[in-house]
From TrEMBL:
Keyword line: Carbohydrate metabolism, Kinase, Transferase, Xylose metabolism
Organismal lineage: Bacteria, Bacillati, Actinomycetota, Actinomycetes, Kitasatosporales
Enzyme Commission code: 2.7.1.-
Protein name: FGGY-family carbohydrate kinase
Protein's organism: Streptomyces coerulescens
Pfam family for this entry, one: FGGY_C
């Protein structure tokens, strides 16, 4: 007898992931397609939208190949905020500009702040203008590629692009819109027309819905391409980090989600709108929720870089060596700003620093320093969250970096905070499946994804990290002038 199931697909920075999940939360199958963003210049990250749709169709065909389950709904998510501009026929006018890892729009940020007012932007939009915001990226395209921009009529992100191809609906979720600063008013929860017309003239901004709403149903044409049943509902979807938070139930007031991935993302659910020039204030993925969020530009990306640099085949051996190195990495300290930094530094010209190197340091020491750098960055973000009025009551971890015990333990030791891990830590694709399940059934997150274990801080290590964290906080201002001068040379 066939069982009913849902599919969740997430389009991420380095891969697209899909899961087939029974309506009881059981993971039936998973599939992955890896990809690499294009880097057409310093500080620029782009991707061809055809990759998103091709990989989606490959994933759904693979997940449904066994024909042992009936798919009854689909959930989507993707990296963001991204800027994909398309013409009236939905033909992209250029590759998509990716989220905060793309730092090209610095001059547009400065100009818009001067024109609109930095305080006015934070007050209306919840966030300062940074490299994370979609608005300046749109302005960059308009200024630097006017011929392409002249053809542009619609704005998409990975999740909304999939929704369009699957259902024909042109729609964006409120949370993604709230990261389109300065186009969206977080108080009114609507596009702010005066600034939208100024920053994105000629663009017909999409109607808005919530991530758990049904955007429409799979068309006959999409069904032929994807092997999905025609007529089943598709969620509106959202940005991947928010789908990850949903997958582990990190959406209650006081919750903080830590997403261990290529980048590190933090989402704190707050009872009322909070703002900070060093964080992102957004509406949540679900109606009635508000968030104060942060994101580090690199985390897993640095460990991947070290793995490749060392010629290692995989991470487990390096993790073993890092554990043997012990707290403090034998006197190494790293700033993890290898792609600039987002929150709370907000410095696209920041760069990675490794301090204290000697000829006796090993691969394990360097790898340990990278894991600790993430922990120090998380603590820095947590402190800024608290200073902005946040009240962190529970920390929930998710993502690929939670699979082994070392990284989460280091972060708990540095922050002094326990972290809850749920049984399934796949992340955004599982969160998308959860939202899809809620379109067709009464789905409980505790039934789907119960708590598996809690990582608790080790007091003796927490004490040792206090001094190292103080040194970490001193390292960035002490090296910023030199690093900025080097960054200028890299951009030439």
């Amino acid at each position: 007898m066939l069982r009913n199931a849902v599919i969740g697909v997430d389009i991420g920075t380095s891969s697209s992931k899909g899961v087939l999940v029974g309506l009881d939360g059981t993971l039936l199958r998973s599939a992955v397609r890896e990809h690499t963003p294009a880097r057409p210049g310093p500080g620029r990250f782009e991707m061809d939208a055809s990759v998103w749709w091709r990989e989606f169709t490959e994933l759904t065909q693979e997940l449904t190949a066994a024909a042992d389950a009936t798919v009854v709904a689909v959930g989507v998510s993707g990296m963001g905020p991204c800027v994909l501009l398309a013409d009236e026929h939905d033909t992209p006018v250029r590759p998509a500009v990716l989220y905060g890892v793309d730092t090209r729009a610095v001059s547009q940020i400065e100009r818009l702040q001067d024109e609109l007012g930095a305080e006015e932007i934070i007050g209306r939009c919840g966030s300062a203008l940074t490299t994370q915001a979609a608005g300046p990226k749109i302005a960059w395209i308009a200024e630097h590629e006017p011929e392409a921009y002249a053809r542009a009529r619609r704005l998409y992100m990975p999740s909304s692009w999939l929704v369009r191809r699957l259902t024909g609906a042109y729609v964006l979720d409120h949370h993604s819109a709230s990261q389109c600063t300065p186009l969206y008013d977080t108080t009114a929860q609507a596009w702010y027309t005066p600034w939208a017309d100024r920053v994105a003239p000629g663009i017909e901004l999409p109607p808005l819905a919530w991530s758990n709403d049904s955007a429409g149903t799979v068309t006959e044409e999409a069904a032929r391409r994807t092997n999905l049943p025609a007529g089943i509902p598709v969620t509106t979807g959202t940005i991947d980090a928010w789908a990850e938070a949903l997958s582990v139930d990190a959406q209650r007031t006081g919750d903080l989600m830590l997403m261990y991935g290529t980048t590190m993302f933090l989402i704190h659910t707050v009872p009322k709108p909070l703002t900070s020039p060093s964080l992102w204030g957004t509406v949540g993925a679900l109606p009635g929720t508000r968030n104060l969020a942060g994101g580090m530009a690199t985390s897993g990306a640095v460990t991947n870089w070290l793995r490749d640099l060392f010629g290692a085949t995989d991470h487990p051996e390096l993790l073993r060596l890092a554990e043997a190195a012990g707290p403090g990495a034998n006197g190494l300290l790293m700033l993890p700003y290898f792609s600039g930094e987002r929150t709370p530094v907000m410095d696209p010209q920041a760069r990675g620093v490794i301090a204290g190197l000697t000829l006796s340091h090993t691969r394990g020491d360097l790898y340990r320093a990278a894991l600790e750098a993430t922990g120090f960055g998380v603590r820095h973000n947590m402190e800024v969250l608290r200073s902005a009025g946040g009240d962190i009551r529970r920390v929930v971890a998710v993502g690929g970096g939670t699979q082994g015990p070392l990284w989460t333990q280091i972060v708990s030791d540095i922050t002094g905070r326990p972290q809850e891990l749920r049984a399934t830590s796949i992340g955004a694709s599982y969160g998308g499946a959860l939202l899809a399940g809620r379109l067709v059934a009464d789905v409980s997150i505790d039934d789907w994804n119960p708590v598996r274990r809690t990582v608790t801080p080790r007091p003796e290590h927490t004490e040792r990290y206090e001094e190292l964290y103080a040194l970490y906080r001193r390292l960035y201002p002490a090296t910023a002038d030199v690093v900025h001068a080097l960054a200028d040379r890299q951009d030439r």
